[in-house]
Amino acid sequence: MSIIKATLRRELLIAFRSPGDIINPLMFFVIAVSLFPLGVGADQAFLSEIAPGVVWVTALLAVMLSMDSLFRADYEDGSLEQLLLSPQPLYFIILAKVSSHWLVSGLPLVILAPVFASMLALPEGGMFPLVAGLLIGTPILTLLGAVGMALTVGLSRSGLLLSVLILPLYIPVLVFGTGIVNSALNSIDISGLLALLGAMLVLALCLAPLAIIAALRISVSL
Amino acid sequence: MLTVNNLYCERDERVLFQNLDFSVAEGEAWQIQGSNGSGKTTLLRILCGLNDEFTGEILWRGIEQRKARQDFNREVFYLGHAPAINKALTAKENLSWYCASRGLTNTDQIKTVLNSFNLYGYEDMPCYLMSAGQQRRVSLARMLLSQAMLWMLDEPFTALDKQGVLELEVLLSEHAKTGGSIILTTHHNLQMDYPLQSIDLDALAGLVAA
């Protein structure tokens, strides 16, 4: 599928030419997580207890923050119209677009998470479940966020509306994500929870692009 | 090729057009005329399938346009007000993605087409460094790369210099002469050596019946 390759190439080129859009959410994640020990005190036991929640919540907010750059530029310069008029299967174009967005916004969070989790004194046994959960969970967040973004891209100042729309959809991912880490810390088998999160990802991969396409058609026809 | 039956569209209590019937055949060039705000852009967006707030029928080669979307999209080129060019990318990068998005493998033509639009030496310049006229030329280069039969052009002459306007007029009449079709809107006085048919939207406008 040359269209997937071409779209990935285009999106990654754009991302690396204007790195501000990538770095802002990442900086937010770094700053928010590092402020916690300063705010709640350096008590190791307490920090290790809140670590999974803190990392997951800030990662979730960072993903939401990064969504704004997904369709905005394409909407404003008219590329989105051309994309919708493409004779190629839109499903794959959109999937490639969202995937490349995750590669530059979600994947760095997953890579950075262990560093900040150990800063928050997360026990070693929680490291793998945290990273595995984020690796499966952040693509779901990106896909769901893309649906919300596609719906609101035509509106100016859509930030608040976007969060109201997609936060309820983010909650299950957050609950399962932190649940995985806490279960592992309490020596409970996590394979079931990971499989559930994986099932959510498969569902999102299948259905979210269809919702995104429908939402983009509405946004462009306004 | 494209047949429009009984098209009706209203916006903000105003009828933009009603009972609009026309049919665009191969080798025909149509101009949509009308004053500012008369709905020229709306009509073009309806025809190319970006706007669905209308009643009536649009047929593409006898099949309803929405059902023939893939064939329709392959054979139709739409040029909107927005350049559809990402400014962080170079002209070549923009166009090669465009070709891929249309399933074309004619990327080796990009350079030739850019040269024919007087953009020799600008292939690898990021588009934010280009002037408005040069960006418009990059958008227009897509027109030749698209291999589409029907060109729908919304104000294609905007920002072009005199030479560019002349060249575009030649391109348009060449396209029509070789069997292609054109629907365009413009306020520019066209000097094409090709017969133009026209739709006057001012004559079709009205108020919504209470």
TrEMBL record, chain A:
It is found in: Cell inner membrane. PANTHER family: CYTOCHROME C BIOGENESIS B-RELATED, HEME EXPORTER PROTEIN B. Its main location: membrane. One of its GO terms (cellular component) is plasma membrane. Keywords: Cell inner membrane, Cell membrane, Cytochrome c-type biogenesis, Membrane, Transmembrane, Transmembrane helix, Transport. InterPro entries: Cyt_c_biogenesis_CcmB, Cyt_c_CcmB_bac. It is a multi-pass membrane protein. Required for the export of heme to the periplasm for the biogenesis of c-type cytochromes. GO terms for biological process: cytochrome c biosynthetic process; cytochrome complex assembly. The lineage of its organism: Bacteria, Pseudomonadati, Pseudomonadota, Gammaproteobacteria, SAR86 cluster. Belongs to the CcmB/CycW/HelB family. GO terms for molecular function: heme transmembrane transporter activity. The chain crosses the membrane at residues 21-40, 46-65, 102-122, 128-153, 160-181, 193-216. This is Heme exporter protein B.
UniProtKB/TrEMBL annotation, chain B:
Keywords: ATP-binding, Cytochrome c-type biogenesis, Membrane, Nucleotide-binding, Translocase, Transport. Residues 2-208 form the ABC transporter domain. GO terms for biological process: cytochrome complex assembly. Pfam families: ABC_tran (PF00005). InterPro entries: AAA+_ATPase, ABC_transporter-like_ATP-bd, ABC_transporter-like_CS, ABC_transptr_haem_export_CcmA, P-loop_NTPase. GO terms for molecular function: ATP binding; ATP hydrolysis activity; transmembrane transporter activity. NCBIfam families: ccmA, PRK13538.1. This is Heme ABC transporter ATP-binding protein CcmA. It comes from SAR86 cluster bacterium.
